[in-house]
Every structure is written in structure tokens, then in C-alpha cells.
Amino acid sequence: MPLPDVPDHAIEFNAVAADWRAAVRLAGAALVRAGAATDAYTERMIAVVDEFGAYIVVAPGLALAHARPGPDVRRDGISVVTLAEPVAFGHAHNDPVSVVVGIASVSPDTHVSLVADIANVFNDPRAIPALRAATAAEEVRAILRG
């Protein structure tokens, strides 16, 4: 399944976040701007980390912020936020995080395949540093396309 389009307004560079909650809120706000989710979805993404811990920090410097599909998801979507200063999420090995990818999906099947497809992008060890260094939306889209 190809990744959903990532519009310019779903990408934010060198954002400032005081902590992991603020970083997740930035990714959620980008999903809202893209029309993929509502603010309630952002709060659910934070609740997932509160409940289950920092498992969303899937690689050094990278968090995949997401929650289960629900009525607060309008369509499948991805957001990308790079942080001016990395923040700790509480992961033993992969902190601090400098790139947060927000994921919203409308169905459980889409959710599983979307997370897997995004994870595959990051099998390339150059992907996270490339995202961190990106300064244009087209660069981000090219990295996500592999």
C-alpha cells in the first residue's frame, strides 16, 4: 500500500517542544491541519504513551505517534515534525527524539499496514538523519517514498 500523500502543511521543521507531550501535540496538530484527524485524536496519541510507555520510539531519534482508529480520524494521514532540540520520551535506548512522525488511520487493517510501511522506510539507516536535516517538504516526501 503506498503511503498517503503528506501535504506541505503536515510537515513542520525545527519545531520547539518542551517535552514529549508537546512533540506529540505538534505531530497531532499537523495531522489536524492536513484534515486527517481532530484534536481529540492528538490527545489519544498522548494517552497511548501515558498508558503503554515510550514504545512509539521505534529507533534512535524517531517516534511514530499514533493511536487506534476511531471517530476522531477523518482519513488516513501522516505528519512529520523535526525538532530544533531533541526531547526525551522515556525510552531506554532510543531517546532523545528529534523526528516525530504522526500516523492516523481509519481502519485497523490500514493502521497495521501504514505503520509497517512507515517502519520499512526507516530500515534505511540514512532515513532518520535525512529527515532531521531536511529543509523542504519535497525532501521529506522523497525520503518517505524511499
Automatic annotation (TrEMBL):
Keywords: Cytoplasm, Kinase, Phosphoprotein, Phosphotransferase system, Sugar transport, Transferase, Transport. Its main location: cytoplasm. Residues 4-146 form the PTS EIIA type-2 domain. One of its GO terms (biological process) is phosphoenolpyruvate-dependent sugar phosphotransferase system. Transmembrane segments: none annotated. It is found in: Cytoplasm. Coiled coil: none annotated. GO terms for cellular component: cytoplasm. InterPro entries: Ascorbate-PTS_EIIA_comp, PTrfase/Anion_transptr, PTS_EIIA_type-2_dom. The keyword Cytoplasm applies. One of its GO terms (molecular function) is kinase activity. Gene3D superfamilies: Mannitol-specific EII, Chain A. The keyword Zinc does not apply. The phosphoenolpyruvate-dependent sugar phosphotransferase system (sugar PTS), a major carbohydrate active transport system, catalyzes the phosphorylation of incoming sugar substrates concomitantly with their translocation across the cell membrane. The enzyme II UlaABC PTS system is involved in ascorbate transport. This is Ascorbate-specific PTS system EIIA component. It comes from Gryllotalpicola protaetiae. The lineage of its organism: Bacteria, Bacillati, Actinomycetota, Actinomycetes, Micrococcales.
